[in-house]
Design a protein that fits this description.
- There is one protein chain.
- By secondary structure, the chain is mainly β.
- It has one helix at about 190-200, and strands at about 5, 10, 25-30, 35, 45, 50-55, 65, 80, 100-105, 115-120, 135-140, 145-155, 165-175, 175-185.
- It comes from Mucilaginibacter phyllosphaerae.
- It holds the Pfam family TerD.
Length: about 200
C-alpha cells in the first residue's frame, strides 16, 4: 500500500518486507489550465510548462550538482532526468508522469547527503491556476511502474496562488540510511538558480 504523504511528513525508504529502496523514480504529473470562453461560454486548454529539477548537496550544504532539462544526468550518472515536458496533461489527468527523475542511491557520489527536488514554472504560469500537480515515488523505470511507494499532492493549497516555484521534497542521509522529507512549500523565486539557493538557505 502506497504512503499518502502529508506536508512536512518524514519517512524512511523501508518497504513492507523490510528491504530498503535503492533505485527510485520520482514522477511529476500536472494538468493544463482550463480557460473559460468569452462570456463564460465554452472552454479551452492552455499548455503548462513546468520543470522538475534535482539539486545535490553535501553535508555542509555545498552544491555538488544540478539535474534539470538542460543537464539530464548527474556527474556520477546516479541521477537521470527523462526530459522536458512542455504541455502537461491537455486531456485531463491521464495518470502518467509528465517528467521523471530516477535516482540510484547505490551509485550516488558518497559526498552527497541531500537530494532536493524542486519545481519551476518555465513560463511563469501561476501554480494557483494549475488544476493538479503531484509527485509519486516508485520502483520501476520512467516508462514502467513496478510498485508505488509514496504519493504526494503538491499544489492544491491556497498558499500556492501567486507563486511559480516550489520545493517538492528532499531525500536526506541520516544514521546510515536515506529518508524523505515531503516539503511542498512555494517560494518567491522565479528561476531555478534562485530556488536552489532557497533550498540551501532554508531547507537543509
Amino acid at each position: 500500500m502506497a504512503i499518502n504523504l502529508q506536508k512536512g511528513q518524514r519517512i524512511s525508504l523501508e518497504k513492507t518486507n523490510g528491504s530498503k529502496l535503492q533505485n527510485v523514480c520520482v514522477g511529476i504529473n500536472w494538468g493544463a489550465i482550463e480557460k473559460k470562453g468569452l462570456f463564460g461560454f465554452g472552454s479551452s486548454k492552455e499548455a503548462v510548462d513546468l520543470d522538475a529539477s534535482c539539486a545535490l548537496f553535501d553535508e555542509n550544504k555545498k552544491l555538488i550538482d544540478v539535474v534539470y532539462f538542460g543537464n539530464l544526468k548527474s556527474k556520477d550518472q546516479a541521477v537521470r532526468h527523462s526530459g522536458d515536458d512542455l504541455t502537461g496533461d491537455m486531456g485531463g489527468d491521464d495518470g502518467l508522469d509528465n517528467e521523471v527523475i530516477t535516482l540510484d542511491f547505490g551509485s550516488l557520489n558518497p559526498a552527497v547527503k541531500h537530494v532536493a527536488f524542486v519545481l519551476n514554472s518555465f513560463k511563469g504560469q501561476d501554480f494557483g491556476t494549475i488544476p493538479f500537480a503531484s509527485i509519486r515515488i516508485y520502483e520501476g523505470t520512467p516508462k514502467h511502474v513496478n510498485e508505488i511507494f509514496a504519493t504526494y499532492d503538491i499544489a492544491n493549497g491556497s498558499d500556492f496562488k501567486g507563486h511559480v516555484s516550489m520545493v517538492m521534497g528532499i531525500f536526506y542521509h541520516k544514521n546510515g540510511e536515506w529518508k524523505f522529507n515531503a516539503i511542498g512549500e512555494p517560494t518567491k523565486d522565479r528561476k531555478l538558480e534562485e530556488t536552489v539557493n532557497t533550498v540551501m538557505r532554508n531547507y537543509l
